[in-house]
Fold each of these.
Amino acid sequence: MTALVLIPTYNERDNLPVVVAGVLAHPNIRVLVIDDGSPDGTGAVADHLGQTYDGRLTVMHRHGSRGLGRSYLDGFRVALASQADVVCQMDADLSHDPRFLPALMASAAAGAGLTIGSRYVEGGRVENWPLRRMMLSGLANTYIRSVTGVGVRDCTSGFRCWRRDALAQIPLDRIASDGYSFLVEVTFHAAAAGIQIAEVPIVFVERRQGVSKLSASVLVESVVTPLRLSLTHGRVQSRGQ
Ligand SMILES: Nc1nc2c(ncn2[C@@H]2O[C@H](COP(=O)(O)OP(=O)(O)O)[C@@H](O)[C@H]2O)c(=O)[nH]1
Ligand SMILES: [Mg+2]
């Protein structure tokens, strides 16, 4: 089974080489770094990694307005045109440990169209989060589940693995949101399309270097998006756990 791992970056100069080394320690994996013109020079660091890991790492340099969701959409389109069996998503800030990739890929190999690396299933957890961030994340997931009907414990996790044939069923042109909402919206479409969703435990470690790009507008969008999805498409009966 071959995988393409999408890694969006914005100011991750010091973290990116570490995460890439961890990812490419696994066989049959390639990386696509999607850099949004990081002012700290992450794009150049990524280009250098492309030379180091010749043929296994490519870089997409985005221009214009930045956005995590838009970056993922561009990456998905590249992935869909590739030969990779599975398409993974992970953060560059070392919150997502590459050691969990084999478990995510094994779940995809066993048939799950979308596998989510989950903090909120047995064996999963978060390290180094203050209580208020834990509560916010827990509340957000309860809210998303009750409004949309999607039965996933960790809908806002960005550590994921898609079977490429499942990703091809998602109406990418209709996805409007960014940040966490992007993750929620894509998961909603996966559940609505009847794609099998699985969660495997991960340990999420809060970043030690650089800063989070979580902003107030992202939080507002997170409240609005589940409502908009359920009003527009109706609640879904998830086949997740
Ligand atoms: N391409 C791109 N990547 C982004 C953008 N915002 C955040 N990222 C990356 O997305 C990942 C998660 O972002 P982060 O700020 O750590 O969010 P948090 O983990 O929710 O606090 C990291 O790899 C970031 O570098 C963006 O606008 N464009
Ligand atoms: Mg982070």
Amino acid sequence: MTGRILVTGASGQLGSRIIHHLLATSGVEASAIVAGSRDPAKLADLAGKGVETRRIDFDDAASLTEGFAGIERLLIVSTDALDGAGTRLRQHLAAVAAAKQAGVGRIFYTSMPGADDSLITFAPDHLGTEEAIKASGIAHTIFRNGWYMENLFMALPQALASGQWYSAAGDGKLAHIARDDIARAIAAGLASPSAENVTYTLTGDTARTTDEIAALVSDVTGKPLAVVHVSDAELAQGMEHAGVPAPFIPTLVSFDANTREGKIAMVTDDARTLSGAGLTSLEDFLEASKAALLG
Ligand SMILES: NC(=O)c1ccc[n+]([C@@H]2O[C@H](COP(=O)([O-])OP(=O)(O)OC[C@H]3O[C@@H](n4cnc5c(N)ncnc54)[C@H](OP(=O)(O)O)[C@@H]3O)[C@@H](O)[C@H]2O)c1
């Protein structure tokens, strides 16, 4: 392996699993990996394994100049700044500009499926970042990460408690993928990048409607779960009554609208092909999560 790999957001759930798989699955030497975080103190375990840690904060240009020095492959993990004020796109553009300045050899980025044709409120952050990476002239690999199976925890515990799952997703399908399967695929892509500029879409094996997912959940937990199909406006109203903070409601509703319109129904082999490993099935994920789902 030539050059060093930097993973930003290394203390996050995805970033930490990517570094785990670089070391444990892809066989990359610890000395070839740099873990970046706003708070390197959170990376003490990695430092103990011989991984260099650096402070990387996309809001702090100086941390990027120092942090990207000597890096050949840079994975920009998209941030969680969903304030609706363009913060996340600004953060990512700062990272791309600093990568150019530092002479990074290849940029990798965690995007979302169909970033260019999506109803999700934050899709423009991802599209804008993809466009900036392409315009930079730097070799690149885009990972369009499908929705995590773990996202089901946003709705299912409450739905199981009441027996009713309110959804505006209609008959739209979605192929959830375990976060760890995405991490393994990304680690493999970082360790052995394509020679070309490439975009992967990392999805699960099977696309299902909300009713099909509810039936599986019911089978696994032994609890009845009915999907109550509502409109976007009714879903938003229900969330408001349930105390969901107002700024989050349009984004949450846009997830269902996007699914309903078939914009996240794609199923690809990309995750399996990249990692060379099988994917966790939704049945197995639900079985392993049963206790947590039932609270
Ligand atoms: N596909 C999906 O279903 C799905 C679901 C949720 C989120 N996402 C996206 O995927 C990303 C990774 O997911 P996750 O599960 O790991 O989420 P997470 O645990 O919430 O991680 C958030 C990440 O954002 C990083 N970050 C926040 N502010 C930053 C800044 N100013 N500069 C640099 N990094 C910053 C954090 O890094 P440090 O704290 O280490 O600095 C952390 O890695 C999320 O941030 C989000 O963009 C995708």
Amino acid sequence: MSVRHLFPALVLAASLPLLTTTGAAAAGAADLLPSGGPPHPIGSYANGCIGGAAPLPPDGPGYQAVNLSRHRTFGHPELVAYVQVLAAQVATERLGLLLVGDLAGARGGRLPGMHASHQTGLDVDLWFDLSQPRLPAAARERDDFPSMVDSTTRRVDPRRFGPAQIALLKLAATDTRVARIFVNPAIKLALCEQVNGDRRWLHKIRPWFGHAAHFHVRLDCPRDAADCVRQDPVPAGEGCDAELMSWFEPPKPPATPPRPVEPPPPPAACRAILGLPG
Ligand SMILES: [Zn+2]
């Protein structure tokens, strides 16, 4: 069974108010500031935290961060550097202005809403829309940027997804720090069909639910991060195969109705960082 067949259970879990009260750190002033000390990602992408996170400035060459009121612009310094390097390349190649969505909270941990990951400061959401001008902070409080996928045809919309988006994904994927990038299956299919020349980066682009207006970049655990739980490497090959095409088939009904899944408690080493009782 593929992990995506578990998704209905995850959706159900995410809809439970339980999740935001037991899974997330209590909101407080301390949550808005990183803990001190050197960068220290702990646990897995979907259950962990980070000490010593760094803030991504809201504006920089080639990018602007959006939804600043959410305070999700913190990450491992490697992630902050990754975004800044990518944005500079986007500017150099004149692709437009990169819109940066969620990184992590100041101390990582579970974010309210649909994000199960983004917990260790090594994940970032980047929008495909490169056409926005630099906006005042109040005008960035939105996430209605356009989808790249036509929901009727279940293929990319060529008026929106074009060479600039492909160039952006290639730049994003070729950084050696990147473990994988999640995109809508229609976007992965478009890459399989349209990318000429160097295709060695395609294997890092993974099909997943949603991710039609933004893509999700996940960095590898940094080399010295002993408490950072690694994910299995992406499978070999370009991923332009039957597994990709299976995303376009109707889902098979589960044998038994999915049960809500309560998120596991955070690793013990996260309790102090997240301000949870010991
Ligand atoms: Zn994400």
Amino acid sequence: MTALRIVAVNAGLSEPSSTRLLIDRMVGAVTEQMGEGRVEVEIVDLRDLAVDLGQAMTVGFASGRARAALDAVEGADALIVATPVFNASYSGLFKMFFDLVDIDAMAGKPVVIGATGGSPRHSMVLDHALRPLFAYLRAVVLPTGVYAASADWAGADGDTTSLNDRIARAAGELVSLLTPRRGAAVTDVTVDGRQLSSASAVTDGRRQAVEAAGIANFAKLLGTA
Ligand SMILES: Cc1cc2nc3c(=O)[nH]c(=O)nc-3n(C[C@H](O)[C@H](O)[C@H](O)COP(=O)(O)O)c2cc1C
């Protein structure tokens, strides 16, 4: 079986970066839930491309490493993206990268969204900034977005159960969307610890998983209906 290709886009700027840490956790959860050998992941750190992306904006086209990153994103089966919150929105670097992406290549592409911030009060950035951006790009944004505030990393072991739960739920939604199981029972497909379907046979496992996840319009968006 050909491995699915997931590209994770990290817009974190710090060293170390909490946004990169969130990306690593999300990638780890998806990889674990997908199973060994079923997914290939590439992580794009926009920090390293900042100058190239700025230049691409001024000349009107991307080249070099920026072009390679855009090609990877455009060719991916799914994306995991995360940005730090800057002044109550996504960062300029994050927006600049997705301003350069080919809109048609984004249509129907599943995207898990994430953000980090100093304040837990800015978690709505996922819904008022990231979701509209990817809706405009006609991507399929998964229902669960993951926001990590500074306090989420502050537990004794540098983590909290609730952040892990949110990451696992977002990963489960993506895995359900990406794993069509034509003609097979889907009783073992779960999201958020909940069995998605008791159907013993389905003709379109992808549509079944999507509908069971409560996102019935995804199949139409993906052209599988
Ligand atoms: C210019 C700037 C603006 C920021 N604005 C916000 C904000 O509006 N809300 C918030 O919660 N955090 C804000 N922060 C904090 C960052 O979002 C937070 O530290 C983030 O996790 C940094 O990510 P990184 O470690 O991956 O670089 C801001 C930080 C900077 C540098």
